Amino acid sequence: MAGACCGGSLMPGIDPSPCNELVRAAGGLLVPRTAIEVGPGLSLDAPAAGECPQTWTLGIDGSWAQSTWGGGGSRTLTAADRVWEEVTEVMPLVAPRDGVWEVTYHVRGGVQLPANLAISQYVVASLFRNGTLIGGSEVMVVGLSRGQATGAAAGAQNTGSASFMINLMAGDEITLHAYQIGQSGVSSLVSNQDGRARITARWTGPVGDTP
Fold first, then answer.
1. What pTM value is reported for the model?
2. How far is the C-alpha of 126 from the C-alpha of 162, rounded, in Å?
3. Within 13 Å, how many C-alpha atoms sit on residue 188's CB side?
4. Which helix (H) or strand (E) holds 113?
């Protein structure tokens, strides 16, 4: 900073460098005060000392959460038609952060029909948040129908999946549930090396974004 003595007072000048943020305001020289805040899931790296221009780097800290069916196995559904059962073999997925999450889950289901019966058997799955059904998350995992009471027993398996966006708060628990339709056959969920059941969630934005 340069200055000239005039009348016994120092009259400061302003360095014209484009990196100089100092300005001459009505009340004197001014250095603007700056405050920087970042929201959840964002990071901010400060510039190195002496760097010109000073560069602040904003990053996104994407967060993942996943729950799987540990060890594998099967679960036979036993409740009445369209009565939800929690699939406790898949641990609850707990949201680690507030925000908009993309949730995906995969379910492998199986149905078996006894011989010589004209029946239908289905498996439906969905996700619950804190014990309440997440409307729109329901999927028909597998279904089999036999229209004539003849022939040998039949079976079928399929892997169903669904993906959707949802607002979650830190600590929200997402659990897998299922119900059967049909009481004469067997409805089940299966998870092993041939097909896994899991819930996965990916943080996509802070609270306030529109899912």
1. 0.74
2. 9
3. 15
4. strand 99-113
Please give the C-alpha separations between residue 120 and each of 126, 154, 166, in angstroms, as whole numbers: 20, 11, 33
CA dihedral of residues 138, 144, 147, 151 (deg, nearest 10): -170
Average pLDDT, integer, range 146-160: 83
d(CA 163, CA 209): 18
- Report residue 209 CA to chain centroid gap: 14
Question: What does the chain come to in residues?
Answer: 211
Could you read off the pLDDT of 94-140 as tens digits, one per residue?
999 899 999 999 999 999 999 888 899 999 999 999 999 999 999 99
- The full DSSP string for 126-173 is EEEETTEE-TT--EEEEEEE--SS-SS-EEEEEEEEEEEEEEE-TT-E
Token readout for 154 is 């039949």
Alpha carbon of residue 93 to chain centroid: 10
With a cut of 90, say whether residue 162 has pLDDT above it: yes
